[in-house]
Design brief:
About 40% of the residues lie in helices and about 15% in strands. It has 10 helices and 12 strands. It has helices at about 45-60, 75-80, 85-100, 130-140, 175-210, 210-220, 240-265, 275-295, 355-360, 390-400, and strands at about 65-75, 105-110, 115-120, 160-165, 340, 345, 365-370, 375-380, 405, 405-410, 410-415, 415-425.
């Protein structure tokens, strides 16, 4: 296959010798049940049918098949910044670029969300990189439709790709797809390492010089004006010093999140509800830090005793009575606030991803959830690298429906955070 000369995808029907000639779901104008209504590409149902009925004859006829699985980077930011209608425009444009890039005999599938699959009969793994490069260049050049192109530099559209081939990586279609999925997420982790290092440096910068100076130097946006509390001095009690250190770490983390949210927020839009909530939480923590960081009042110094002078008398005069020293009682020390962590009350059983069930895969997904004062989960972030095979999204959906007893401070409910592990395991006798 020559990757530089893709065949026109508007060509006619397949020859009778092609194993896909009688596969109506892969033909132009095929059954609507096997077409994605937004992009016009094949849908996941058609791909599953291909794996079940035509994969082995297709492999026997062509000798090798290469499968490409890729998803769009920063697609969620486009939806959040411009709305889902703009995201739909981007998905339709990506489908057009795929038709222009690949051959007419290649099967193009919208796998779900912003994930796409390309099945290349008769092509080896060496033919895929030039096609991937061409598609990425096309995405970078004209991926955002009007009126989004004016902000293309702020939200560049790219993709992460996983490539696998049969029979080199496996014989079955689902097996090849699973290997491509693992390679896609390996590429995502590799590309995110510099970003994680920058995030670590950002946290260190925020902890030393404050968020306001850093954000103002990076971009002219609303200053945060949130100073970082001073480190606990050696004269503080160990318990108070430990509490101050924990609050400082929480302020640094929330300040980093607020700075990142403001950098990604369009300058011509009002602050989001999440930004306002972060600002209020940080301000409350700063007040608590200032109270805890105040040094104890020094004890009053007693007045000096009057000097005793000797007189030239024959007999020494009696010694003056000692002057009583009145020492005020020490001021009562303010008690540290009583803080309790959120307590998990219930979490629905997550749905098992179909592909993982067929492959009989198990996984544990580590999540960090934010809980409001009513015990509802308002945000979910994943800790560690993605697991893949649909586990991450199913775990996130289950976490959003979890219920907690909220955290408390001096008996009053307050927002808090907790870690949640969602486990997926198939029991004995369970199968696809």
């Amino acid at each position: 296959m020559d990757p530089e000369t893709p065949t026109d995808r508007r060509a006619g029907a397949r020859p009778a010798s092609d194993p896909l000639a009688g596969f109506p779901h892969a033909e132009p104008g095929g059954e609507l049940a096997f077409r994605d209504p937004l992009t016009g590409l094949l849908n996941r149902r058609a791909l599953n049918l291909l794996f079940a009925e035509r994969w082995r004859p297709l492999l026997a006829a062509h000798g090798e098949i290469t499968l490409l699985l890729f998803d769009l980077d920063l697609f969620k930011q486009i939806n959040d910044a411009y709305g889902h209608l703009a995201g739909d425009q981007v998905l339709r444009r990506v489908a057009e670029l795929m038709r222009e890039t690949f051959r007419a005999e290649d099967l193009l599938v919208r796998y779900g969300g912003d994930e796409f699959v390309a099945v290349l009969p008769g092509a080896g793994a060496e033919a895929a990189p030039p096609l991937v490069t061409r598609l990425r260049e096309a995405l970078a050049a004209e991926s955002l439709p009007e009126p989004l192109r004016a902000r293309a530099r702020q939200l560049p559209l790219g993709s992460s790709v996983g490539i696998a081939s049969a029979p080199a990586d496996g014989l079955g279609g689902e097996e090849v797809l699973a290997i491509a999925d693992r390679r896609l997420y390996a590429e995502k982790r590799q590309r995110r390492r510099p970003r994680r290092r920058r995030a670590w440096l950002l946290a260190a910068l925020l902890a030393t010089v404050g968020a306001a100076a850093w954000v103002t130097a990076q971009r002219e946006v609303r200053p945060l004006a949130i100073p970082v509390a001073p480190a606990p001095v050696a004269t503080l009690e160990p318990a108070r010093a430990a509490e101050i250190a924990a609050l400082q770490a929480q302020v640094a983390r929330l300040t980093e999140e607020l700075a990142a949210a403001r950098l990604a927020h369009p300058a011509n839009q009002e602050p989001s509800a999440r930004e306002g909530e972060l600002e209020r939480t940080i301000a409350a923590l700063q007040e608590e830090l200032e109270r805890l960081s105040e040094p104890p009042a020094p004890a009053p110094v007693p007045p000096p005793s009057p000097p005793v002078r000797a007189t030239p008398a024959a007999a020494p005069p009696p010694a003056p009575a000692p002057v009583p020293v009145v020492r005020p009682a020490p001021a009562p020390r303010a008690e540290a606030p009583r803080v309790t962590a959120p307590v998990l009350l219930s979490v629905p059983r997550p749905e098992y991803p179909p592909l993982a069930r067929r492959l009989r895969r198990s996984a544990n997904v580590e999540l960090l959830v934010e809980i409001d004062a009513d015990g509802r989960v308002t945000a979910v972030r994943q800790e560690g690298p993605p697991v893949g095979l649909g586990f991450d999204e199913r775990a996130r959906q289950a976490a959003l429906r979890a219920r907690y007893q909220p955290a408390t401070r001096d008996g009053e409910p307050v927002p808090g955070m907790a870690r949640l592990t969602v486990s997926f395991h198939l029991g004995e006798g369970e199968g696809p």
